[in-house]
Amino acid sequence: MLKFYFNAAPNPNKVSLFLEETGLPVELVPVDTRKGDQFKPEFLKVNPNGKVPAIDDDGVFVFDSNAILLYLGEKTGKFLPKPLIERIPVLEWLMWQMGGFGPMPGQVHHFIALENEQDRAYGLKRYMAETRRLYGVLDRRLANHEFVAGELSVADFAILGWAWRHPRHKVELSDFPQVKRWYETLMARPATKRGMEAKLD
Ligand SMILES: N[C@@H](CCC(=O)N[C@@H](CS)C(=O)NCC(=O)O)C(=O)O
């Protein structure tokens, strides 16, 4: 059975969304990153990068959340269109998320917790501005697309994993009405809600 190595954090949550939405049978393997379980030799065999999520699909090891989404989408034929012309926007928005809409709010999460006011102020100014710029890009895209790539796809799951943390990176969704509409549509789906709430236990 598919083993899913995870903790309760944005990148594993993207995969939880896919698993809940498809109902794929899965064995959950919590990895307590606070205790350093991600650095244990047995886990590094699954993910040499020492981070979650990762999967072991009967001996096929895949790490990095968006690679896992592509693997599972391809394997199941769900949330990943086959025709290249339809797949390209999914790939674009997956790359957009991986390169920006994750690393940038992640930096806000880091700097907001710093005690040194000077370090904190510089980091927040830089990364909050970039995070808000990315929300603006997403808002403009969603103004004429129901979901980022047209139909609901793994790209929405990847982006939602981080948008769910908007209170932590201090973004008001009401400032981005199309993102708010998209977010509320997704969170009204029972499977999506369950996927976002996956806990370590
Ligand atoms: N690019 C990777 C990033 C994975 C990542 O940063 N995972 C975090 C949880 S969201 C983690 O494992 N943190 C523990 C650590 O860095 O030691 C992915 O998308 O899977």
What is the mean pLDDT? 96
The distinct bound ligands, ions and cofactors come out as: glutathione
How far is the first residue's CA from the last residue's CA?
A: 19 Å
C-alpha geometry = globular
- Beta content comes to 5-15%
Helix content: 40-55%
Strand order, largest beta sheet: 2-1-3-4
Q: In this structure, how is the largest beta sheet organized?
A: 4 strands, mixed
Q: Output the helix-strand order.
A: EHEHEEHHHHHHH
Please identify the structural class as seen in this structure. Answer: alpha+beta
Task: Please tell me about this protein's structure.
The chain is of the alpha+beta class and 201 residues long. The protein contains nine helices and four strands. The chain has helices spanning 10-22, 41-44, 65-76, 84-99, 103-111, 117-142, 154-163, 177-187, 190-196; strands spanning 2-6, 26-30, 54-57, 60-63. Helix 1 links the parallel strand 1 (2-6) and strand 2 (26-30). Helix 5 (103-111) packs antiparallel against helix 6 (117-142). The model has no long low-confidence stretch (mean pLDDT 96). Glutathione (GSH) is lined by residues 9-11, 33, 38, 51-53, 64-65. Glutathione binds at residues 9-11, 33, 38, 51-53, 64-65.
